[in-house]
Each structure stands twice: as structure tokens, then as C-alpha cells.
Amino acid sequence: MTTPLRHRYEIYIRTTPARLWQAITDPAFTRRYFYRSLVESDFRKGSPIRYLDAKGCVLIEGKILESLPPRRLVTTFAKRWDSGRKPDPPSRLTWEITPMAGRLCKLSLVHDRFPIKTATYKAVQLGWNPVLSGLKTLLETGSSLFPAVRT
Length: 151
Fold this sequence. Notes:
Layout: E1 5-13, H1 17-25, H2 27-33, E2 38-40, E3 48-52, E4 58-68, E5 72-79, E6 91-99, E7 105-114, H3 119-141
Antiparallel strand pairs: 1-7, 2-3, 3-4, 4-5, 5-6, 6-7
């Protein structure tokens, strides 16, 4: 039996679940830590979700599978930023927010359901680290980790 392909990350962020949820779901936040992309969705189960670049081009698209604010968001994830390649099948992305003591949250991110080591699997393997580091920095300091992104 083979091990399912997935990427799993955990990070601790000094913030509240509501503020962390806002940072994950508000385009004013995502543009400051998620490769300058703007998230677009109403975050209801069954609704579409897209991440757009500054010109409105779709970078990632998917569907909301589960939305339990401010604790859990599960979506499909289809990479669209490399239009020169045949698209990979959608994978799944799970954001899980666990409140800890005081004003501390554990954020678990699991990106799974890859049928094989697709181009998406390889691209996101290192790509989630700067996203999560940028999210933590933004919420804890109010500043973007990447100076090219201004408020």
C-alpha cells in the first residue's frame, strides 16, 4: 500500500481565531502574504473560490467543500498560474484553526488528494512555507514579510 501524497504544515500565530479567519478569507489580507493574490469567494459550501493576480487573471480556482468560520475551511485547489501546461486534477486544501491558551492559535494546513506527484504537488511543496511565514508575520507585526507588497 502506498502512502497518500500530501503536504502538512503547522504554525503557531499570536492572534485570535476570528482575526486568522479574516486573514485567510479577506483579499485585503491575502494580497499581503499570498503571492499578492486576491481571494474571491462568499465562503459558503458549494461556492467557487478563486485567487486572482493584480490584473484579474486566475491563479488558483476551486470549490468550497466545507466552511466553519472561524475554525475550518476546506476547498478544492486547481493550479492555473501555468497556462502552458495541461491542468492537473484538483487537489484538496484544508485550513484548520485551533485556539490555544491566551491569544494564540495553531494553524494546520493540509494539501492532499494528489493522485501522483503532479506539477501542482511539486510547485506547492516549497510554496506554502512563504505563505504561512508571511501570514504569521502580517498578523503578529502588521507588516508584510515581503516588502514589495504595500498596504
